[in-house]
Amino acid sequence: MLNEKFLEPYTQKAAPWGFNGLGYIVYKRTYARIVDEDTGQTEEWWETCRRVVDGANEIGAELSDEEAERMFDYMFNLKGMPGGRMLWQLGTPNNFRLGGDSLCNCWFVDIQKPEDFSWMFERLMLGGGVGFSVLNPIRLGVVRQGAVDNHDVADADYIVPDKREGWAECLLRAVKTYLGDKNDPTEFTYSTQLIRAAGEPIRTFGGTASGPGILVEGVSKICAVLNGAIGRNLRAVEVLDICNIIGSVVVAGNVRRSAEIALGSPFDIDYLHAKRWDLGNVPYHRAMSNNSIVTSDIEGIPDVFWEGYKGNGEPYGLFNLDASRKYARRFEVREDKTIEGTNPCAEIGLANRESCNLAEIMLPNIESQEELIDISKLLYKIQKAVAALPYLDRESDEITSKNMRLGLGVTGVTQALDKLDWLSPAYEALYDFDAFWSSYKEWPTSVRLTTVKPSGTLSLLGGVTPGGHPGYSKHHIRRVRMASTDPLLDYCEQRGYHVEWVNNDNRTKVVEFPCEFPEGTVLAEEMTAVDQLKLQCRLQEEWADNAVSVTVYIKPGELESVQDFLRINWETMKSVSFLLHSEHGFEQAPLEEITLDKYQEMLSQVNDEKILINAGMSELLDDDCATGACPIR
Fold first, then answer.
1. Pick the catalytic residue: 345, 356, 515, 630?
2. pLDDT tens readout for residues 86-138
3. What is the mean pLDDT of residues 473-491?
């Protein structure tokens, strides 16, 4: 346990929060747990750092007293920290009740059997994102005639208990009426009379319940997909729909979020058209996943794939399964044949039912190569202890214990280009330390150690650019949506941030934060799409033995140069996604470029008074995971 005398100075000072206080707001609404049930008061940052560091030792990180103090100081000063799930859950009873499932950000599942749908449902309800494959739906078998009804009476076949396992079991039984074996019934009734009403509190993860209606609606929609396929195998796009409907059920909970990525074939036209919103008649639930194709051959991709890069629907991402299995760092052959797919942000290649295990270093805040190596080793010890925990699912437990796969990331890269030469020596030191520590603990060495993830929320804490992405603009407004009852709103108004109602929504307000990137930050306007791809490749070569997740912004006229670059380099690249650069014209957009004068005007309205935040847990309304990036709690 950290010494109270050591902690005392930190209780009297503020962390170096990013973006003129935005980092503190993001922390309070995302990671600060309730410390006083009577008043609802939540943690301050030093308390969160203490909980996380002490919690890491409780699960077996074996940080010495000196290491624990260094780790605390690194965290407090926003130099590095475990992943968002660990910030939210480390040091809580869930670590022992749920094991590693409570601490991992995301997962992958190869959809082969009905149980894979319910497994996915449970992981999403636990707050994790899930990648899934629709490459071979024939394995699910021929869909038979089934009948599923919701009857809120005591003699239904299944009375759904008010817990995640009950929701997942209900889904499984419903799907098995259509895809089960001869021993499974073809008729199923269920009752939701035990499920708590909408608005009642969820104590384990915070927030409020969505009520039973969304479960009934989701099961009904999934059965409609299955009814449309009776007498034949499901098509890939129908498996996609079932998984996306599951995600939409989870999103209905106001603290949970659903992050999904689908992996499909480049030759499945229906799959490629799944998010062609311009064609009409596309169900909204398909917004739940970012879709990618699995290919090692850029030349072989059909022309229809590139339509999304011309503004017709959403551009799909690319995932190179062969390169993910063959290479650790770029050009470094170290095979991992267990990899079957990827997590929702595509920075970690994963085996079936395997999880991500993440941590992050804020590179601009690191002062030396020696400090980078030190913090890497300390975060590694926490991650390795998480990998050694038991996992709820037997298959997940076995593959995690075998692979011990970790993902230590760096963020703020385009603010720290002068520090990139530190990455390769730091990686080599970490690789050697893994061999030493794994031998000492009698664990397997980790098949992979490092990554670069998109890093939305954690990067906001320290005010750095996200992952390997350029800065949005030198001066900009970042808008954060909050429920009108959120206890943080009063704090924001007292500090002088501009607060207004969200258009056509009487339950939600938006807060505007003036933000500035420091001199020397590489901005989006200064990088072509190919420049972004080149930086991705360098990070893959010097640091990431998993993958580098970036969303490359493509401007009009850049597609041909992107295709040329990929033709030459794709053999050793693992994943990439794209977003068309356009003038959105939205009111109350999440990000808006502003002038220096406007920035200074907004900043002059913000005061530095020490104002206490009252009490209560915030709802998460617009976090990165809602749009496909990794969930944060």
1. 345
2. 999 999 999 999 999 999 989 999 999 999 999 999 999 888 899 999 999 99
3. 91
For 359-393, b/e burial (b = at least 16 CB within 10 A) is bbbbbbbbeeeebbbbbbbbbbbbbbbbbbbebbb
Q: Would residue 492 show up in a list of annotated catalytic residues for this protein?
A: no
Shortest CA distance to 239 belongs to which of 213, 256, 267, 263? 263
The sign of the CA dihedral 8, 9, 10, 14 is positive
Write out pLDDT tens, residues 337-362.
999 999 999 999 999 999 999 999 99
* Joined tokens for residue 620: 């998460």
Most distant CA pair in the chain, distance: 71
Query: What's the distance, CA 585 to chain centroid?
Result: 27
Where are the domains positioned within the chain? 4-102+347-469+521-582, 106-319, 475-514+587-624
Q: Which residue has the higher pLDDT, 196 or 241?
A: 241
Cβ 114 vs Cβ 180: under 8 Å: yes
Distance of CA 589 to the CA centre of its chain: 21
> Could you confirm whether 345 is annotated as catalytic?
yes
CATH placement of domain 4-102+347-469+521-582: 3.20.70.20
Percentage helix, strand, coil for the chain under 3-state DSSP, each rounded to 5: 40, 15, 40
Phi-psi region of 482 (alpha: psi -120 to 50; beta: other; left: phi over 0): beta
pLDDT tens for residues 271-325?
999 999 888 889 999 988 999 999 999 998 999 999 888 878 889 999 999 999 9
Count of beta carbons in the 10 Å neighbourhood of residue 228: 13
Q: 156 or 504, which is more confident?
A: 156
The DSSP result for 321-389, as a single string, is: HHHHHHBSSTT-B---TT--EE-TTSSSEE-TT-B--EEEEEGGG---HHHHHHHHHHHHHHHHHHHTS
Q: Are residues 346 and 292 in contact, defined by beta-carbon separation less than 8 angstroms? A: yes
pLDDT at 310: 82
- Using DSSP's 3-state secondary structure scheme, residue 239 falls into helix
Q: According to CATH, what is the number of the domain 475-514+587-624?
A: 3.90.1390.10
Q: Within 13 Å of residue 440, how many CA atoms lie on the same side as its CB?
A: 12
Least confident range of 233-237, 474-478, 515-519, 609-613? 609-613
d(CA 253, CA 620): 10
Res. 584: pLDDT tops 90: no
Active-site residue (options: 169, 238, 340, 347): 347
d(CA 331, CA 571): 10
